[in-house]
Amino acid sequence: MGQKKKKSMILLFAVLVVLVAAYFILQSWNKSQDKKEQAKEEAENIYITDIDTITDIKYNIGSGDMEFTKEDGTWYVTADKDFPLAQSYPEQMADTFKKLKAERELKDGDSLEDYGLTEPVYTVSLTDGEGGETTLYYGNAAGDDYYVTVGDEGKVYTVSSTTISDLQYSLEDMAQLDTYPNIGSGNLKKEVITQGGQTTTYDSENDDDAQNIAAVAGGLGAVTLSKAADYSVEDKDLAGFGLDEGSRTTVEAVYTSDDKEKTLTLYIGGTDDSGNRYVMMNDSRIVYLISEEICKNILNEE
């Protein structure tokens, strides 16, 4: 290779090194600028709450008082600790309100009455880990926002209306329902029905039960746990649903899942005013409503 060509290669390599270095320097500078811009924006934000840990959330958005309490890392409905509360709902509420951002703070504004804050539309009370309480009052709507004041400090802010969207669920919406297994004729091994002291067994190993297994598997596979009559029934109330030990029908379904044999226990009780049957499963305290037709299929009744 000639000297001239070597010098050209060296020059090109040097230029490449410079360009690569410049690229990384520019990237670093851009990241630094982004961080500065983010820090500036954060410094300009107005937060009307700053709560490290929320242990109690109480609110009323026009449909009655709701309250949730956190104990040992778990959220409960304060008035009914046995209610099967899906943790994602209160966790989202706590995440929203522990550091609530205001859209703006009103300076030299009108009286609280003019913003609907003397008779608030919504009230949200938050208790921290040390027992301190912060109360937010929501007044009139202001476009996509609400006027809000905190406690008795008198300052008026606007906050996004989305901040109360997490509060608009009913308790029924927030219930953590049981997970029902996938059962069909392909994985149902056996069903044992006990009713009034009498036991009926359908076994997939018995060729004579093939039609019966298909029928009851169709019923078991059609079950949907979506409607509940009681979310935390007490033993003393089971008779009212026909689910006390002396009245209910017990169904034990042995099935396979992931190559493992498992057992589902269903308790079938009486009917409601619409003709649906009351049903419980395994050790759950939730009373579900399942159609009479599905229950008849599970029990292999005409």
Automatic annotation (TrEMBL):
Domain of life (superkingdom): Bacteria
Ranges for domain DUF4340: 75-191, 209-293
Pfam families per record: DUF4340
InterPro entries per the UniProt record, alphabetical: DUF4340
Protein name: Uncharacterized protein DUF4340
Species per Swiss-Prot/TrEMBL record: Faecalicatena orotica
